[in-house]
């Protein structure tokens, strides 16, 4: 059975050629940001779009009717989406104008780029639908500061579940933020920033392990790449901390550091020494 594998990485270079389109000669009067969104929307009917960029032509500033001329590039994740776009090229219109599509060649050396978290989430949502995943913080802890170091460092472990597919992925992330001991609230800000970034990087690591397999019959399967290495090895002893907090809802994106304003240095040190564990 024919299949296509999509990982949470995108290639740049010679293999990237078949995923790129050059969109030429569509007219109108748009802002570049607006037209890029319109191009991405139109081309996403053929498959998930990694990126869409649009530029105003310098060779043909305006047409006879006063409209601007644009060209752009649409990047797909998969070869199948590229083929569908070619077949539908005569039917894709931006505004009221049809577009002309050609493939773009490249001589760049191949480079593997890991997807940002939001793009990895969007890719899964495209194939599995909304609410296809859930996440849980298994561990988040502040690392001890070394002597003479003005750096807050957090380690975070999360688990991302895909219930409908009966698979899950775990990711470990490290967040660091420097602080100035002579600046008021600098340590509090670094504390919040490092913890938030450790959560983000652990989520990125977890989503980066999912592999999307598109079968020839149109069905989708999800596997987990077990060959990827996390920044550190998870210790099961972390599941038995000295301090336990029950019924804690932890959401780093909703944290407000204003509540730390006015704390003394000793109070802040005591706060930073408390372990945070969610269940």
Description:
It is built from 5 helices and 14 strands. It is of the alpha+beta class and 279 residues long. The chain folds into 2 domains: 11-108, Alpha-Beta Plaits, CATH 3.30.70.330; 115-272, Enolase-like, domain 1 (2-Layer Sandwich), CATH 3.30.390. The two termini are 42 Å apart. The model is unreliable at 1-5, 10-25, 241-250 and 272-279 (pLDDT under 50).
How is this fold's topology laid out?
Elements: E1 3-7, E2 9-12, E3 20-28, H1 32-43, E4 49-56, E5 68-76, H2 79-87, E6 93-94, E7 97-98, E8 100-103, E9 111-114, H3 117-128, E10 134-142, E11 151-162, E12 167-178, H4 186-207, E13 210-215, E14 220-224, H5 265-272
Antiparallel strand pairs: 1-13, 2-9, 3-5, 3-8, 4-5, 6-7, 10-11, 11-12, 13-14
CATH topology of the largest domain: Enolase-like, domain 1
What is the helical fraction, as a range of percent? Answer: 10-25%
Based on CA atoms alone, the radius of gyration comes out at 24 Å
How many helices in DSSP terms?
5
Biggest β-sheet: strands ordered side by side in the sheet: 4-5-3-8
Order of helices and strands: EEEHEEHEEEEHEEEHEEH
The overall strand count is 14
Distance between the termini: 42 Å
Ranges where pLDDT stays below 50 over 5 or more residues in a row are 1-5, 10-25, 241-250, 272-279
**What overall form do the CA principal axes indicate?**
flat
Brief account:
InterPro entries: DSRM_RDM1 (IPR057652), Rad52_Rad59_Rad22_sf (IPR042525), RDM1 (IPR040224). With 279 residues, the chain is an alpha+beta fold.
């Amino acid at each position: 059975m024919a299949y296509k594998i999509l990982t949470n990485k995108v290639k740049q270079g010679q293999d990237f050629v078949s995923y790129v389109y050059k969109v030429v000669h569509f007219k109108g009067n748009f802002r570049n940001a607006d037209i890029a969104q319109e191009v991405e929307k139109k081309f996403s009917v053929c498959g998930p779009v990694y990126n869409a960029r649009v530029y105003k032509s310098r060779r043909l500033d305006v047409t006879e009717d006063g409209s601007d001329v644009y060209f752009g590039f649409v990047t797909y994740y998969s070869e199948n989406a590229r083929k569908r776009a070619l077949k539908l090229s005569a039917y894709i219109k931006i505004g009221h104008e049809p577009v002309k599509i050609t493939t773009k060649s490249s001589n760049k050396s191949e480079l593997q780029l890991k997807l940002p978290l939001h793009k990895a989430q969007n890719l899964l949502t495209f194939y599995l639908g909304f609410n296809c995943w859930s996440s849980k913080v298994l561990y988040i802890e502040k690392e001890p500061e070394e002597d003479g170091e003005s750096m807050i460092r957090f380690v975070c472990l999360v688990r991302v579940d895909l219930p409908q597919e009966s698979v899950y992925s775990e990711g470990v992330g490290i967040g660091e933020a420097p602080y100035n001991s002579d600046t008021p609230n600098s340590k509090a800000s670094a504390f919040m920033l490092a913890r938030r970034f450790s959560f983000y990087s652990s989520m990125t690591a977890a989503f980066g392990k999912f592999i999307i397999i598109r079968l020839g019959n149109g069905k989708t399967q999800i596997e987990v790449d077990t060959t990827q290495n996390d920044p550190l090895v998870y210790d099961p002893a972390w599941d038995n901390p000295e301090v336990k907090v029950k019924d804690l809802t932890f959401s780093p994106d909703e944290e407000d550091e204003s509540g730390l304003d006015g704390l003394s240095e000793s109070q802040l040190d005591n706060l930073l020494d408390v372990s945070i564990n969610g269940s």
